[in-house]
Design a protein that fits this description.
heterodimer; A: alpha/beta; Rossmann fold; 8-stranded mixed β-sheet; 12 helices; 12 strands; 32% helix; globular; B: alpha/beta; 4-stranded antiparallel β-sheet; 11 helices; 24% strand
Amino acid sequence: MLPIRRREKNVSQNEILKVDHLKKYFPVEKSFIEKMLTRTRHFVRAVDGVSFSVLKGEIFTLAGESGCGKTTTGKLVVRLIPPTGGKIFFDNVEITTLDHEALRMLKRKMQIIFQDPYASFNPRMKIGEAVGHPLEIHDIAKGLEKRKRVLEILERVGITPAEKFLDLYPHQMSGGQRQRAAMARALILQPEFVVADEPVSMIDVSLRTAIIDLMLNLRKDFELTYLFITHDLAIAKYISDRIAIMYLGKIVELGDKETIFSNPVHPYTQALLSAIPVPVPERIRKKTELIGDVPSAVNIPSGCRFRTRCRCARKTCKEKEPELIPVSPNHYVACNLAEN
Amino acid sequence: MTVDALTVEYWTRKGKIRAVDNMSFSLEKAETLGVVGESGSGKSTLGLSLIDLVPFPGRIIKGNILLKGKEVLKLRKDDLRNLRGKEICYVFQDPMTSLNPVKKIGAHFVELIRTHEPQVTKQEALKRAKKLLRDVGIRPERVNDYPHQLSGGMRQRVMIALAIALKPSVVVADEPTTALDVIVQAKILDLLNALRDAYGMALILITHDLSIVLQRSDRIIVMYAGHMVEYAPSIEIYSNPKHPYTQGLLNSIPNIELADQKLEAISGSPPDLLNLPKGCRFWPRCYCAFERCRREAPLLIKSGTEHFTRCFLYEEGRKT
């Protein structure tokens, strides 16, 4: 077994991660002629003022449709890309402006698992090497010691017998095994915090549950905190403690899993929930209709960004951008109608 | 439409892969048949073979497909072309690759309609295209747009509009919503259902998502490693699943309506089709496999009214 850091058992509900008005704008590439003719620069406002905090030991989920900025938020949080604005705190230390060396140290504590396990492995690196690579980068173990640790962690994520897999290349493993190996590589440094970006969406249905269960077990054993990113609310409901629903770069609703699913307040959350297929025959759920498609993140509507598709949009929604405000303890909604 | 003993093989350098093994089923008018299975279970091959479009090196080894009294697999090339589009239509998973990027949306309709009905003028065809687009919820002006100007959901709607343009009796939709977001997905599925009712066409819905199939189909085929392992009305599949694989699938999908659900994973992973296990193809992952499962392959047997299962557990004389 790996040595496991023990913390005080009275799980103090302190924040491991705090994100404050985080922003990420990507510039839109213009053609040469456009550059000559116009001076205005356009930006894709992928993440546009997101604030939340993740408590130690919990599974916090960012959910939303494609293009809502959930993956960008995940990448910002582990500092894979620099933010345009806002602050990120990890363990009460601001990490928004760390230099290269400090970032390297930070990555011992926070890791990320990506959606596509095939793309996240070097195809010419054997699995054993790839999983052990972080140990070398961080000067923790080499040679036999490294091998021992790699074997341990591979067994732990259910790749057994681990010896057989050490010398395999990524393409020789199945999708499920690759995702397990990706988890092993993330956990070999014994991080405290793991961002899991759609870890099961590319995996066969019959193997998904096994991967999710593994994630839950590892959380217990390694005392991990997860930031889980998914578009699949059914999985979000199964795995998370708290959920934040994102729309066009902003959080529109945030709360405990039970609250979000039993008492969704934001019209977008309601529509999203009503669209999820239920595995029950002849049960077309009561539908909350949405008009149109998601607007482009370059031209975000004024005021409330959801108003163009909202069935209860008022005049005020055009002028006033709603803040994320509490409607009950631990339940926050960004909607002008929820304010009174 | 009836399909009888359909078998499709891919002849690769490494050996023969039987992607669809001896499948028989029937499809009634205005019925939705759901085909569910994991990647590699042969569900897409099954869909393609229904229009005799299995890609090389695949070939249909044997079987019969009867569509409105015509034997699809024995048709001449011209007749087959005529049949596709007019009687049976296919909606592919990726709407971007199935639309021609250098052709306007309207041109797709004109080409399709005029190929099958040469007497129709271009203007008339465009008029019909506009009406079809309106039916699927797209503004008719969009006939002048190119595919890249539409969003993913709209492209899929265009594909559906093209599929129903000639009012076929069967529409095969292969993962029509996999690339789409949940809200768009729900809308597309509603649309397919509404069109099915309006035109009385039968729908074959192929997907890996058991939730969708349970919610939207009348009958369901569960496929595993090229075999039909269970075939029953969806209510039966939901309330009385017989095959251990179907049971496992049902236990492993989350349902947002249930509080505190406990999911159970199916152990192991799907088999390599070149290296199938001896006996029942599911036994290495089955929780109730016994001696005989390792030696003999079970047949599809009747395990209830309209309920068929490929498992020894339900043979006559055995208690269910």
